[in-house]
Every structure is written in structure tokens, then in C-alpha cells.
Design brief:
With about 750 residues, this protein is mainly β. It folds into 2 domains: about 650 residues, Maltoporin, Chain A (Beta Barrel), CATH 2.40.170; about 80 residues. A hairpin with a 2-residue loop joins strand 12 and strand 13. The chain starts with a helix and ends with a strand.
């Protein structure tokens, strides 16, 4: 079955298109960003158009204006995705999301790498590079406005469950001007934008979001060989500045500063009611955000001759996080509506401050053995050191990371080029890990909740920061890649790549004070994955905590014995480029297997890089190993831009994406520690229904003298597909009942004026 579906993807791509890049890179130009239906949202673009990418929410059609996604590809955790502007990283040092919302109008190109990583990046599996828009040769101004709402946004059919999200209202406006001064020596591009939207979630709650940004990109030609660059981006709660000095293509020096303030909008005190199956792990609900900082400086240099092209680089960064005042209140935990536990949080009275210093140096050489054969070899030194203020111990890692890839031009009429090689990458040190051992981290006393008065109920657990193992090892990802690139025509390109990745060791929190011997066990009958037959029926093991272990919790951040996470994938990508046509299509077949840090199927649960409850509660370890959050098995995504008669232009993005893996959850009540949900089989033995959307943009250009006006109409989910995206996952008669479907059709109308 697998080979048949992979074959179908390959055949479809061969018929329709050619390839993007044998190294697994895709480039989106400013012209493509202008002509495709993306609503100015980077995440909407890559979610729908990039076949390797998985996000944690829908974005197209104006949904989630100004919100950053958790974006990942294959085995790489979303927390390790690297966003860069030029040479400078803008990923959050806490959770990996971009620290500013990247308005599409500000970029000349967006480069997405999900296969072989470029030499200048430290990403483990997904890197998104942004190149700022340069100045035009003559002063040019572009103003665009678009909006949706009212009759332009549609509701889900009353015969179907509610949409997971639907557009209520949406507007976007930006202005960008650019040109040159001082006899062309000074080049400047500057602009401002604002996007606001109202999203209705599950037909119940309305969320209003907005984002505004100001952009300035300048360069000054000091001499014909020396150019200075400067960039400034200001957002609602973020600021980014960077500068560089460049000597042609020989060397450059750069530096950057990025800051963001995050606010969870959760109260600092009081009482919160949360359901574990819907709202996620309870400790994450106590996070109230804070202030994040990245300061970076570095250099790049290149030297080339007939045989060697050598590049060198080094950069040093300091990252920091000052947490908002800790939550000091109560969280009432329910499990599928059943009262389970009461978490009473208290603050140590200190402000949590965490910081890290990151140093990277690399050398890369592409040397030619013959006119047809070349080798890319690189070696990176990656050093990371971080700690929380007042912590007894921090984290120190030093890694040598080699990579070697062979490129062989086979010399056939199809212009085939074969690429194969291996590489090693390392997880970046995220400041979230330093919550372990942080004396200012929030503390919680956990009590059994039977739905009545909790006063006098026994203390079950004490949740605190714990310590960090002094032998904590860094997660390392090893990759093998094999690719074939063909260009039978100058306008037709095809690539096929196979990837295999393995990541180990894993980092998790271990409750050493309450080992497995602190639990008794019993079993309950369970139907396993096959509900119709009895061939796989089982006795599901349940762990019941002994009362004498209550309050003895002692947490250590360490590398427990857990099987390595692995991934295998086939990626087929193609591109046809003609004067009036751009067609790009890609398909993937993949499997990512590992142990999620928490029970559940969401990005904050079923991800191997999320330290959570896996080794603090044995009920979380039942069937923990399975298909990970970003595993979508099969995807096909395509985009097209076509010039039509009468100054019309059409752009379209279509995608098919297999459903999210999940497991059936069995609720066990009346345990000593309160009600628990237990996975009845591995994630991935069941999946939600596939996602399928077609987004279309139609533009009509009108010229009035030197001014051109583009009238724009966008249709998102044009076919109004309403496939399910979530199900009720609890054992019982409602199991697999659809609880949410994909967003309904919506239209945007707008205009762009350039003069």
C-alpha cells in the first residue's frame, strides 16, 4: 500500500511538473508572494504550499492574524525550526517561534530548507530564511488594502460540526516605498502595515487579533567594494535591528538585536478551570510569558579558485528571558469533564531570569574532483552554555558536527545530478529547558479533587523546578540523504529525494522521588485499535499511585532510557517555469516515529522535544511511542501562477494533507491520584480525516499613465471542503465523533496601487 501511494505521488508529479531543488530547498520570490493567495501571512503560505511543512493551526483566509505558528517538518521539532533574516536568527530562545510576525510585503525572497541544511544554519531539519526587499532603481511606492467579512465569509453548514476556526472579519493594509539617493549610493526601502482580524473558534468564541509593523531597509555604498546595510523592523510587541558591512562576496561582518514581550493573557491569581484533554498539560497553563532577547554578532568569508569554494563563518549570541510574575492561584484540572486534581500554585517571590551564550564556527568547502563530481564537506563547532539566575546547575554542551555530500553530474540528456551524503546536527539550547533548576520557577501543591470541597483532601504531589542532571547530553540528529535532480528542458525541472533521520538521546523530566515501584497496577479490558474484531483485544495496564508516595516527588532533567526518534521520507518536487506560467508541485511520503513528551495529539504534547509527563507519570508512558505530531504520512501541495489575456493574472494553491495521528484515550476514574486518561494504542494507528483546500487569487491590472492599479479577489477553500480536523478521542459510544471541521470558504477583496 505504501509503495502504491508513493508511486502515485511520483507519477502525478512527473506528469504535471519538474523539480525545485535536489537539496530539498524551495524559494518564494517577491513576485510569487504578490501573486499567490496568502493574505500577507507567511504561515498561511508555507502551510498550504510547502509539502514538507506541518503547522499547528489553519492560517489561510485571514485566520489568526498576527499569530505565530508552531511549524515543523518531518522529525524536526517545531521548537527547533530556525527563522533567519539574512545571517541573523530571529527564533524565540524560549519556544522557537519567530519573535516578530513576518509581514510578506517586506521580503524579496523566502527560502525554505527541509532537506540538506545550508552551511550557515544550525537548524536540525527546517530553516526559513528571509531576505529583505531591496530598494528600486527609481522611487516607487506601493499601497495595498484588502478586506473580508460579512457576506464574504461563510459559516459551516448547520448539518456539520462547527469549524475549528472561521473568519468573522479581516482587513490588511500596507504601504512600501523605495528608491535611491545621493547619486545612487544610498538605497532605501521603507514601509508600514497593519492586519487585524476576528476569528470565530468552534462557532463559540470570538478572538480578535491584530498586528502592525514598520520596516526600513537601507544600504550605503561606501566604495565600489564596500557596502553597509541596515535593517529595522518594529512590531506590536517586538523590535529587530541588524547591520552588516560587506566587501563584495569576499567577507561580511554582521550584528543583530531582537526583543519580544509575550503575554499569555492569563490572570496572575485566581482560579482557572481546565480540561486536560482539551487544554493540554496543566503546568503549561501557569506560563504567563515574559521578555525575550537575542543579541548576535558574526562574520562570513569566502574564497574560491578553480577547484575549491571555501566559506568560513563564526557567530556568537546571547539569549535571555525574564519571565512575567509567576501564576499564584488554583487550576482545577478535569479529565473529559471528570474532576481530577486541584493545582495550587505559589510564587517563590523571585523573578525568573534565564540566559545562554551560543557560539558557532564552521568551515565549508565545495571542491571539484572532476568537471562532473564535487564534494561538499563541512565541519561545525557548536558550543552552548546556559543557566537560570540562582540555579545550582546549568547546561553546557560542546558538539562537533560534520557533514559530507557528493554531487555527481551523470552527463545524460536529462542533465541528471545525483546527490548523496550524511550530516549531523544538534538541538539548540532552548531557555525553556532552564526552567528545571530555576529557583524562581512556580511551585504547585497538587490535591485530589472529587468534585466536592478540596479542603482536607490529601496532598498528592509537589511540583517544583527540580534539578538538572550534571551529565545531561544534547539531542543529536543524524541524517542520510539521497537525491536525484533532472533538468531535461531549461523550463522543466524535477527532483526526488529520500531522507532518513535519527535523533537521540532525548531530554525529559524524570520523577526520581516516585519511581515505578511507587505504583500498584491492575488491568482493564480494552478493544485496542480494532473495535470491530477481537483479534487485538488487550488488558490495558493502569498505574495507581500508592498513598505513601504522596509528596515525595523529586524531579531531574535528564536523558532517560528511551528509544531514538526516527524518520524516513520520500520527497518529490517539480517546477515548470515559462514566460506566462509558473507551476510548482511537491509530494511527500513519510513516517516519523518517537515518544511524545505528553499524552495527546497536539504540537505541545506529541513532540519528542517537549519535556513533560512521560517520565513523571507511568500512565503517560503507555503507548507513548508512535507517529509524532508533524507526521502527515502523505501530502501533495501545488501552486500555479498564470498570465491571462486582458491583463488578468491567476494564482492558485492547492493542497492535500493526510490527517493528524491520534490515539483513543481511556478514562480511568477513582484512582488514588485522581482520574487519568491513558492512551489505548500508539498515536497514528488512527488519524483524523485528510485536509484538502483550494485557494485562488485573480488580479486585473489597470494602467493610468505611470500608475498601475491591481484589483484583487481571493477565494480561500474555494470548494468549501468541510473535512473533519478533530474527533472525540475518548473510549465510549462517541469515539470518533467529529468535533471540528476545517475552516469554511471565505473571500477577500482588495486593490494594489503602484506609482
Amino acid at each position: 500500500m505504501l509503495s502504491m501511494r508513493v508511486g502515485a505521488i511520483v507519477v502525478s508529479v512527473l506528469i504535471l511538473a519538474g523539480a525545485a531543488n535536489a537539496d530539498g530547498q524551495s524559494i518564494y520570490t517577491a513576485e510569487m508572494l504578490r501573486d499567490l493567495p496568502a493574505g500577507g501571512n507567511l504561515f498561511a503560505l508555507i502551510e498550504t504550499a510547502q509539502p514538507e511543512i506541518t503547522t499547528d493551526r489553519f492560517n489561510s483566509g485571514g485566520l489568526n492574524a498576527g499569530a505565530s505558528d508552531k511549524t515543523s517538518a518531518f522529525l524536526a521539532s517545531w521548537s527547533q525550526t530556525q527563522y533567519r533574516i539574512g545571517d541573523v536568527t530571529i527564533s524565540s530562545p524560549v519556544d522557537g517561534t519567530p519573535m516578530l510576525f513576518p509581514e510578506l510585503a517586506w521580503w524579496r525572497t523566502i527560502d525554505v530548507a527541509a532537506g540538506v541544511m545550508p552551511a550557515g544554519t544550525t537548524a536540525t531539519g527546517l530553516a526559513i530564511g528571509l531576505t529583505p526587499a531591496p530598494a528600486a532603481d527609481a522611487w516607487t511606492t506601493t499601497i495595498e488594502f484588502a478586506g473580508s467579512g460579512g457576506a464574504l465569509s461563510h459559516n459551516t453548514s448547520a448539518a456539520r460540526p462547527p469549524a475549528i476556526a472561521a473568519v468573522d472579519a479581516w482587513t490588511r493594509a500596507y504601504a512600501l516605498t523605495s528608491g535611491r539617493a545621493l547619486d545612487g549610493r544610498l538605497a532605501l526601502a521603507a514601509g508600514a502595515s497593519r492586519t487585524s482580524g476576528s476569528t470565530i473558534a468552534r462557532a463559540l468564541t470570538r478572538t480578535r487579533e491584530h498586528t502592525a509593523s514598520a520596516f526600513a531597509n537601507a544600504s550605503f555604498t561606501i566604495t565600489p567594494q564596500r557596502i553597509a546595510h541596515g535593517l529595522l523592523l518594529i512590531g506590536d510587541s517586538s523590535v529587530h535591528a541588524q547591520a552588516s558591512l560587506q566587501a563584495n562576496d569576499r567577507w561580511r561582518l554582521f550584528g543583530g538585536y531582537t526583543a519580544r514581550s509575550t503575554d499569555s493573557n492569563r490572570p496572575g491569581t485566581g482560579r482557572i478551570v481546565a480540561d486536560r484533554l482539551v487544554d493540554g498539560p496543566i503546568p503549561l497553563l501557569a506560563d504567563r510569558g515574559g521578555d525575550e532577547r537575542r543579541v548576535a554578532a558574526g562574520t562570513r568569508a569566502t574564497r574560491a579558485n578553480q577547484q575549491h569554494a571555501v566559506s568560513l563563518g563564526a557567530d556568537i549570541e546571547r539569549t535571555s528571558f525574564a519571565a512575567a510574575p509567576a501564576f499564584a492561584g488554583e487550576i482545577e484540572e478535569r479529565v473529559d469533564g471528570t474532576p481530577a486534581r486541584l493545582w495550587r500554585y505559589s510564587s517563590p517571590g523571585l523573578q525568573s531570569r534565564r540566559h545562554a551564550v551560543l557560539f558557532n564556527a564552521f568551515v565549508h568547502d565545495r571542491f571539484s574532483i572532476s568537471p562532473a563530481i564535487a564534494i561538499d564537506a563541512a565541519l561545525r563547532l557548536d558550543v552552548a552554555s546556559g543557566a537560570a539566575d540562582g540555579a545550582e546547575r546549568g547546561i553546557q554542551w560542546t558538539s562537533l558536527l560534520p557533514s559530507v555530500y557528493l554531487h555527481w553530474k551523470l552527463g545524460t540528456p536529462l542533465h541528471l545530478e545525483w546527490t548523496t551524503g550524511v550530516s549531523r546536527s544538534a538541538d539548540q539550547l532552548m531557555l525553556g529547558l532552564l526552567a528545571s533548576g530555576d529557583p524562581a520557577a512556580p511551585i504547585a501543591d497538587v490535591y485530589r479533587d472529587n468534585g466536592g470541597i478540596v479542603l482536607g483532601a490529601p496532598l498528592i504531589a509537589r511540583v517544583n523546578a527540580g534539578t538538572i542532571d550534571d551529565k545531561l547530553q544534547r539531542p543529536i540528529t543524524d541524517q542520510f540523504a539521497l537525491g536525484l535532480d533532472a533538468r531535461p528542458l531549461s523550463s522543466f525541472r524535477l527532483s526526488v529525494m529520500g531522507l532518513a533521520r535519527k535523533q537521540s538521546p532525548q531530554i525529559h523530566v524524570v520523577n526520581e522521588g516516585v519511581p515505578l515501584s511507587s505504583y500498584t497496577t491492575f488491568t482493564i479490558p480494552d478493544a485496542n485499535a480494532d473495535l470491530a474484531g477481537s483479534g487485538d483485544d488487550q488488558q490495558l495496564i493502569v498505574y495507581n499511585r500508592k498513598p505513601e508516595s504522596f509528596g515525595l516527588d523529586r524531579y531531574v532533567l535528564s536523558n532517560p532510557d528511551v528509544e531514538a526518534a526516527t524518520m524516513g521520507a520520500v520527497i518529490v518536487e517539480g517546477e515548470v517555469t515559462k514566460p506566462h506560467l509558473l507551476l510548482r508541485i511537491g509530494g511527500t511520503a513519510s513516517a516519523s516515529v518517537g515518544s511524545g513528551g505528553n499524552r495527546g495529539y497536539t504540537a505541545i504534547e506529541n513532540d519528542q522535544s517537549m519535556p513533560g509527563e512521560l517520565f513523571t507519570n507511568p500512565n503517560a508512558g503507555t503507548y507513548a511511542r508512535g507517529r509524532l505530531f508533524n507526521d502527515r504520512a502523505y501530502t501533495i501541495k501545488t501552486l500555479a501562477i498564470v498570465d491571462l489575456p486582458f491583463n488578468l493574472k491567476a494564482g492558485a494553491i492547492a493542497r492535500y494533507q493526510d490527517g493528524q495521528p491520534f490515539s483513543r484515550i481511556t478514562i480511568v476514574r477513582d484512582l488514588n491520584q485522581g482520574a487519568e486518561g491513558i492512551q489505548s494504542y500508539a498515536n497514528g494507528r488512527t488519524r483524523f480525516t485528510y485536509r484538502s483546500t483550494l485557494d485562488v487569487r485573480l488580479q486585473k491590472r489597470i494602467k493610468v499613465g505611470k500608475t498601475q492599479v491591481d484589483l484583487i479577489g481571493d477565494a480561500y477553500n474555494l470548494l468549501n471542503m468541510s473535512n473533519e480536523v478533530e474527533e472525540y478521542v475518548v473510549t465510549g459510544p462517541r469515539f470518533r465523533e467529529t468535533t471540528a471541521v476545517q475552516p469554511p470558504r471565505s473571500f477577500h477583496l482588495g486593490a494594489r496601487v503602484t506609482f
